Amino acid sequence: MLAYYFNLAVRSFKRNKVLTALMVLAVALGIGASMTTLTVFHVLSGDPIPAKSDKLFYVQLDPFPMNGYTPGGDPAPQLTRFDAETLLREKRADRQAMMSAGSAAVEPETSGLAPFILQARYTTADFFPMFDAPFAHGQAWSASDDAARARVAVISSELSQKLFGDADPTGRTLRLGKVAFRVIGVLGDWNPNPRFYDLTNNRYSGDPEEIYVPFSAAMDLKWSNSGNMNCWSDSDGDSTDLNAPCIWVQYWAQLDSAQKAADYRAYLSNYSDQQRAAGRFQRPSNVRLSDVMTWLDFNQVVPSDVRLQAWLALGFLAVCLLNTVGLLLAKFLRRGGEIGVRRALGASRADIFKQCLVEAGTVGLAGGVLGLGIALLGLWAVRHQPTEYAALAHLDTAMLLGTFVLAIASSLLAGMVPAWRAMQVTPAIQLKSQ
Fold first, then answer.
1. How far does CA 49 lie from the centroid of its chain?
2. Continuous segment of H or E residues that includes residue 363
3. Cis preceding linkage at 194, omega within 30
């Protein structure tokens, strides 16, 4: 019966081409605008590590002095190097990693390649298993390598291909800033977006970090960091020194149960109290553990203008559907004679309602196809905008299916009132008027 109703809908479209075109265009414009903004919102608001996002926690303390203190305010967004190294050394979490962004000057041994600078990450051994970073070759370094300030490196597959070709480079030497590092691992395809583990640099980037070295080795070599740094008093030495009064280190802890998270929060409070008693901290204890999605929400990773655009697009879709309701109502009521004949021949009101809904759904299907094209055009325009997330504006499978689900569901919703009015047609009155 569905196929029969669909055939009737197609015939009706051919008889009323202009009216049909207006309805399809109204649906398509609403769907195209909505799916453009919803796709951007979907990309930006997704869980970057769904298997573990509720077990990974960003650690915050409050080492700032009392000047500028506001009760109930947020703790510092990063840790001092001293605090991060202390927490790492005490190992109260299932896994823990301290880190900072930086850069490394690569001096290739391959002839024809000039030295170049790449994004780097200074981190500790648990970084890779914590964040499920896959390896194409080799493995991560160990905690003993951190302690020994070992000159080892993990590189991206792109850098491996550029420097060593198709060969497995593990064990090969890589010169970084005139210092020889031993390549012990090559990452596979891994570029989480947003880059949730460090929101102080580019949150959305098409280019992954290509070199990872032990934090201790980078500090031993006096490499500078990149990203936010906040110092509250003058330091005699480098701002990255162990005792420098500066926050610039990100710290993550993996806690595999709610009880462990509660215990770790208590441990941080005790640590804060100890540091205040020692004279390092001045403010009252103010610690925070935020899981991945809470941390992303706190940092407003989804820009407010993206949220606003999504709501405006849905409002525009509602306006388009109201126009479609009017057009469908006019179309169905103009066919009162045809509906009266069908009723006289034995069709029930439910049959008329189903026929009209199938016709509305067919309009939605056609509008979805055209709306998909409009959405693709809109996403192409987004990718050419000067925003850091522009390159991510692509329609994935879920949103592709969502385009047609939204189009058909919207058109069915718009067709409810016109279909209900159509099924109220009285056969006797219509037949007398013919």
1. 10
2. helix 349-383
3. yes
DSSP string for residues in 286-303: --EEEEHHHHHHHTT-S-
Other beta carbons within 10 Å of 144: 9
* CA-atom Rg of the chain in angstroms: 31
Does residue 76 contact residue 64 with C-beta atoms inside 8 Å? yes
- One-letter amino acid for residue 23 of the chain: M
Question: What pTM does this model have?
Answer: 0.80
How many C-beta atoms surround the C-beta of residue 201 within 10 A? 16
Q: Which amino acid is at 182?
A: R
Containing 56, the helix (H) or strand (E) segment is strand 56-60
312 is written with which tokens? 């405006």
One-letter identity of residue 220: D
Nearest Cα neighbor of 378 from 297, 299, 316 is 316
Spatial distance between the Cα atoms of 127 and 111, rounded to a whole number of angstroms: 33
pLDDT tens digits, 269-316: 999 999 999 999 999 999 999 999 999 999 888 877 788 888 888 898
Q: For helices 17-45 and 2-15, what crossing angle results, to 10°?
A: 120
What does the H/E/C string look like for 318-362?
Answer: HHHHHHHHHHHHHHHHHCHHHHHHHHHCCCCHHHHHHHHHHHHHH
**pLDDT digit string (tens) for 385-402?**
877 777 778 888 888 898
CA dist., res. 48 & res. 46, Å (int): 6
409 token code pair:
């569901």
**Residue appearing with tokens 């037949």:** 431
| Residue owning tokens 């005490």 | 90
Closest CA to 104 of 186, 178, 173: 178
Amino acid at 249: V
Question: Residues 198, 200, 204, 207: is their CA dihedral positive or negative?
Answer: negative
- Give me the residue spans of the domains in the chain: 2-48+303-433, 62-286
If one counts every other C-beta atom within 10 angstroms of the C-beta of residue 235, the result is: 14
Dmax (CA) for the chain in angstroms is: 101
